[in-house]
Amino acid sequence: MRTGRTLVRRLAVAAGLALLAAHSPPAAAQQAPSGVAKPVPGLEKLKGRWVRAEGGYVLEIRAVGPGGKLEAAYFNPRSIHVAKAEASRKGAAVEVFVELRDVNYPGSTYTLSYDEKNDRLVGRYFQAVARETFDVHFVRQKP
């Protein structure tokens, strides 16, 4: 008797799954829930190791996540904690924002634009301790 009930349950589950599959839209047609960050096209080109022309500071962009969130590291020459790193598109422009939070870096920031023609990041660095802003640019370090 027990085997019969188990078989009936399995058949019911299989029939339910088949019915669900038949009435579900294809995966490509399903939409992500609202509020979920979506990939931003064109940001993958930011991945790499970038060296600041003056000083040898290094910004390493390891990955680009949904909504433009960057997995990034910063070195001078030792590792400095990156509190926030994100990229976005403003029209055709690709923008990068990095906030540092560490000893001697209490909220220093980089606000950069990607110069595709010259494959470099160009913008401004705000040094929080001195409260000064500098024009800077990074070039991609070749492997």
In short:
This protein is of the alpha+beta class and 143 residues long.
Terminal CA distance reads 68 Å
Helical amount among residues, as a percent range?
10-25%
Strand order of the largest sheet: 4-3-2-1-9-8-7-6-5
Radius of gyration: 24 Å
Derived structural class: alpha+beta
Number of DSSP helices?
Answer: 1
Low-confidence stretches: 11-32
Taking all residues together, what is the mean pLDDT?
Answer: 82
Identify the CATH class of the domain at 44-140.
Answer: Mainly Beta
Plain-language structure description:
By secondary structure, the chain is of the alpha+beta class. It has a domain at 44-140: Beta Barrel (Lipocalin), CATH 2.40.128. It contains one helix and nine strands; from the N terminus they run αβββββββββ. The protein has one helix at residues 2-23; strands spanning 48-52, 58-64, 70-75, 79-80, 82-90, 93-102, 105-115, 120-127, 132-140. It has a nine-stranded antiparallel β-sheet with strand order 4-3-2-1-9-8-7-6-5, with no helix packed on it. Strand 8 (120-127) and strand 9 form a beta hairpin. The radius of gyration is 24 Å and the shape is globular.
Keywords:
9 strands, nine-stranded antiparallel β-sheet, Lipocalin, 143 residues, globular, alpha+beta
List the helices and strands and how they pair.
Blueprint: H1 2-23, E1 48-52, E2 58-64, E3 70-75, E4 79-80, E5 82-90, E6 93-102, E7 105-115, E8 120-127, E9 132-140
Antiparallel strand pairs: 1-2, 1-9, 2-3, 3-4, 5-6, 6-7, 7-8, 8-9
